[in-house]
Amino acid sequence: MADSEDEEAFHSAGEEEVTPPSQKSEEKPSKSGQPSSTSSGGASGKKEVQNVGKPNSKKAKGKKGKKKKASMNDKGDNSEEMKGEATMSEKDAAVSSETDQQDTKQQPHSETQLEEQNQPDADVETAEGVKSELKSDKKEERTSAVEDTPPESSKKENLKEQDDSSPKKEDSQPESELAEEGGDAKAKTDSQVPEEEEQKPHVKEDAEQLLETGSEINRDAQGASPEPSQDDDENKTLETDERTGESASASSKQTDAAEDAEAGGGRSIMGALSKLTGEKPAEKKASGGGWGWGGWGASLVSSVSAVGHGLSSVIENVETSLGLPKPEELTEQEKRQQEFIVTLDERGEGKEGKEEDGDKDEDKDEETKDPGEGEEMERDGGKEGEEEGDEKQDQSTPEDQPSVPSSMKGFLSLGASAITSVVGKTVTGGLDALETIGRKTMDVLQEGEHRLEGRRSGQKGNLSEMLRDAKEEAETAAVLEEEERERQRAHFGILFDKYQGLAHLEALEMISNQSESKVQGSLSTLSGEDLQSLKTELIEIRDAFQLEDLESEEQPEGSEQDFVNAITEHLFGVSVASTPDKLQRVQRSVHEWLAECKSQQEAAQKQDTKELHIKAIETLAEFSSRVIEQFHKACELMLLPQDREHTKNAVQRATSLSKLTSVLATEVSNQASKFADCLNREAANQEEGAETADVNPLITNIYLEASNSTSYIQDAFQLVLPVLQMVAIERKRDATTETS
Amino acid sequence: MMSAAAEELSGLPPEVIWEYQFRMILVGDSTVGKSSLLRRFCDGKFVEVSDPTVGVDFFARLIEVAPGRRVKLQLWDTAGQERFRSITTSYYRNSVGVLLVYDISNRRSFENLQEWLLEAKENVTNPCSTTYMVIGHKSDLEDKREVYKEEGEKFAQAYNMKFIETSAKACINVEAAFSVMAKEIYVKLKNGDLEIKDGWDGIKGGFTAPRETLRLEEPRQDKKNCCA
Predict the structure, then answer these.
(1) Where is this region: Disordered (chain A) (predicted)?
(2) pTM score over 0.80
(3) CB-CB neighbours of A40 under 10 Å
């Protein structure tokens, strides 16, 4: 730690600052590009940290320090430390002992550095450092702007200020004022370099920023210290490294402590910091190795993660109000993002680091500045810092903590939460989506291809074989399906339902059951002679309601007209006002179709036996449906009250119904046999025995469905009986009431 | 009886592919247009003049209640004439949905809805789980309107029924009316508010897989677990 070196470094730094800043500015934009991108990615995390930290200013240290990175390292450390100490001491008078410890630890740096450098320079530098730190903290843009390009910096600063400091301003403004005064004064008094002029405006801005973030700065400085240490390691002396390392560790610990303290209260910070400082060396060593940037990155990670932890507690509160994701998730996301950022930073800074390494001046400047800052720190801490700083800090501290939630909310809700949630959701959401898709795909595959699934688990034959088998099976299944469809087209039950035969049968059944229960009810109310007479009458009806033996019924190969006459006559016998229009229509069309078929066959036109069969079944189904509908309608009409009086007696009706049913059944068998004839003719036409074998099952099926059809009709017929009986009872009751 | 759309289903008899069969009954005064409504819905036709229904008639159509989920609606078209009243009351029992139809150009038919509703609730198997809908029919006769739409809505709302105005002639809301009903019932079924019960034909299991044995006398039992 030769004074000359430091001084030289400082001077050179001061002189060179102009150039390096330009480089920095150039570099930093690039950084900002990367970091910003990273930060944008990680921005949520960082922002949160910043946001959280600023109000408290404790958190800010860690972040700022990290952000400041190599460029501002030394300066930031000292000034920050100084201020931090001052603030600390001011704030926590009670904890003064702890602060003292920290001060003592930190002071050594500052003192040594101070000794090396000129105080005035130090002041200016400190101001610069502070500025730079602030800027760097807020974002690299600032740093670049601060040093080289004021306009940009101012703009950016403004923006940043608005973003970052808006929460802070309230709290930290008092401090900022002090800082401004001090910084300006120092800058003025210290006529070091031409840079000062440039710096002054910057300084003011910076100072404002600093003031705003004054508390933050201190913390930042602490946070920044780790980085400086790394830089120092690379560039300069081990001693500085150690010291900075200590300070850094202290700062980092402080940040941690500060974070912790946020929850617990400002005072505990000091103690935590002191404890932390004791532990730090190891961390720094680890982080310090290799490239400064890499080391910085590592330290950044640790500190960031620490910050993240600290945040989590704060975030929890905010989250509850904001409805953010779980704190664990948030912190996790933060870490991820931060790590991500760090890596990016490392890359970005790696470049910078090289450049900067090349420009030892910068580093030196920073270092030299640090000592200067250290002096300032001492001064401030001793004088203004204690007085004003205490007052302001006191004001700020109480404000800070309460303000944390409110400012936090605003910030988190605006920036951090939005970005984190968005980024986090995108990442996690994307992963979830992928996972879901994958699972769904498997499910679908397995659902659709049970065979494939079995094969997959079972044999491990080659894929093509497996797929070929699956294809064959699928084809077989398709053929079966097609056959099934054909079968369904000729399925009597389905067709019967299609023609509403089933519905009519059901409706008829309902009426029948209702009538049946009414009949039973009537019987139960009667007794003696009435019961006997009623029973007798009901039995008569039932006896008349017997289907004549269909076989014995002579079957005149009835013409179409015969059929119509017969059913009309019998329906009239039932004395129902319904006409067998539908029945007739169906019957006529069937016979026309059969005649057409026959003529075609005689003309040697080929008929598709399958289609013939389907037509036969369809016809049977339709006809029987119409028959059942007819019965249904007849029942409905018979049940009409108006109908009762004009009708013939129940026995007559029963007889007519029976005959009607016989006719209808006969018609069914006629149709069946005609279709069978058609098929047989077709088979005969085509000759060649194989065809005959093909036709026989179809003919058999037709006869089968014909009998099925007949049984439906007979069922329907049977269902009419209770209705007839019911009507008879009703009429009898009407008669008795009339007579009585 | 079958709609052209339904018959297009992959060459199969359309009834083969329904998941459930819902039985609904249409009631309301004579000449309000119940049969026309059903003919429009099931056959896509409209006839200016039609004979009064005797007792009950049947219509059927498949309708999609959810993507890939078809149900068969078996629609019982009851006679509105007073003389069939004693018969038609027998037909409520196996219905899961009741459509109360009135003619917006016939105030009397609207006022009689109260009676029809009462009758339905008395005769339906399970009045609570039955779905009701009020249909103001002949909405094309706007110039002859005697019942405001609001009145119909209010009436339906009062009894927690659905409401829609339709026109078979202009083909307005015909599809929607039955679709709403079918979906409502389907949802109830899925929620467990309704279930397939032996001895009650309001809801029957249908055929979803063509390869199943197709004996209509034995309603499919496979689909009953769908309620779970």
Answers:
(1) 1-298, 322-410
(2) no
(3) 15
